[in-house]
Design brief:
α3 packs antiparallel against α4 and α6 runs antiparallel to α8. This protein is mainly alpha-helical. The protein is built from 14 helices and five strands. The longest helix has 20 residues. The relative contact order is 0.09.
């Protein structure tokens, strides 16, 4: 195995940490395969079933999917090295399916916190305060992506119909409804924006600065500032997209409707938010019910 470790270190320039991880994983398998006598290990005697059995034992012992994936990849790399050097004709690790990693649940802001973040604007609110409020309101009320919000112009908004026309991924167009409260705020903002930035060319961006549409970087910084006191994990425009979806489903919205508004091509993408609901229910049960508290 030392030749393999030297290959990682001196030909692929892997870090000492990475080389040590490979060494540890392979040595662990060698000890398993030889019942505790790694010095007697014969790599050519290994079959796919031996690796599967080892991984199953590790899983039973509590190894997490990320650890199982790494160990599988270590063996794949080792046998790929042996194939390149002509030391054997096939790899017993090649057909091993990598353990699936659990998808992390998206970050979101609680509905009660969002309502607190969106109080009614004061009549004398400044232009920046108005724009910040509108950014939060649109993202929370529509679930738009960052790029969709920044590309939104007056031409995409129909205040009388109460809807906006959104150009999403793959240039697919969809119609997203907006409530009267948001429509009124957009109208008020357009008046304030035009007075503050009279030289903006048409069609004027909804989220505007004096130089045109707000940049993606500026929007990210703005959202982080507005959500700085919220316990929402990652604070980004996408956090508010997750917040919209979670709020809709918690309010009883049909999954297909939420899929349509978000512009998801697959219903399975939208279903992650039903997992959020299940997770929330389980946490509440575990903290509230006497039996749920028992380990």
């Amino acid at each position: 195995m030392q030749d393999f470790l030297n290959y990682l270190r001196y030909e692929l320039y892997r870090s000492d940490h990475t080389v040590e991880a490979y060494r540890r994983d392979i040595t662990q398998f060698m000890a398993h395969f030889t019942s505790g006598h790694p010095e007697a290990f014969d790599p050519a005697a290994v079959e796919t079933r031996h690796i599967r059995r080892w991984l199953a034992d590790l899983a039973d012992a509590g190894d997490r999917p990320a650890s199982l994936r790494r160990k599988t990849q270590s063996l794949r790399a080792y046998y790929k090295f042996r194939l390149r050097r002509g030391l054997q004709s096939d790899s017993p690790a090649e057909d091993i399916i990598l353990a699936k990693l659990p998808k992390p649940l998206p970050d979101f802001v609680k509905t009660s916190d969002m309502e607190r973040l969106l109080p009614d604007l004061a009549p004398d609110a400044g232009i920046i305060e108005r724009r910040d409020h509108l950014i939060l309101h649109i993202l929370y009320a529509t679930g738009l992506r960052r790029s969709e919000l920044l590309s939104l112009t007056d031409a995409h908004v129909s205040l009388t119909a109460g809807q906006i026309r959104v150009l999403g991924k793959g240039r697919k167009e969809r119609i997203v409804p907006i409530a009267k409260q948001l429509a009124d705020e957009i109208a008020a903002w357009q008046t304030a924006r035009d007075a503050e930035f009279p030289d903006l060319p048409a069609p004027r961006p909804i989220i505007a600065t004096g130089f045109g549409a707000m940049s993606a970087t500026n929007l990210e910084v703005t959202i982080k500032r507005l959500l700085k006191n919220e316990n929402a994990g990652r604070r980004s425009p996408h956090t508010l997209r997750h917040t919209f979806a979670t709020s809709m489903l918690n309010g009883g919205a049909d999954l297909n409707v939420v899929q349509s508004i978000l512009g998801h091509s697959s219903l399975s993408t939208t279903q992650i938010y039903t997992h959020l609901q299940t997770s929330d229910i389980r946490r509440t049960y575990s903290s509230a019910h006497p039996r749920g508290k028992k380990k």
